[in-house]
Please model this.
Amino acid sequence: MTASRSAHLTIRNVPPRIAAALRAESKRRGKSLNKTVVELLGAATGVGHGGQVEPVTNGLEKLAGTWTEEDLAAFESALIDASRVDPEMWR
Model:
């Protein structure tokens, strides 16, 4: 198979819950079931349109490195109570 030709695949034994979730997702997107499945497979494998590898991301990279020292200090201060162990609860 070359990169310029589309492959035709048949997937068998798809569990009913997965099939229903795929149909619901295609309806939510307003796209055909086939297009939805191709997009989901591309995202899951890191291969986007045109066969180019796309990095898998959680979408948080835009937040990385944006905290100031003051932000960090406030965050750590807010966690102090959460990190204390109550000896009475561990008896």
Remarks:
- Residues 69-83 form the longest helix (15 residues).
- The chain has a mean pLDDT of 85.
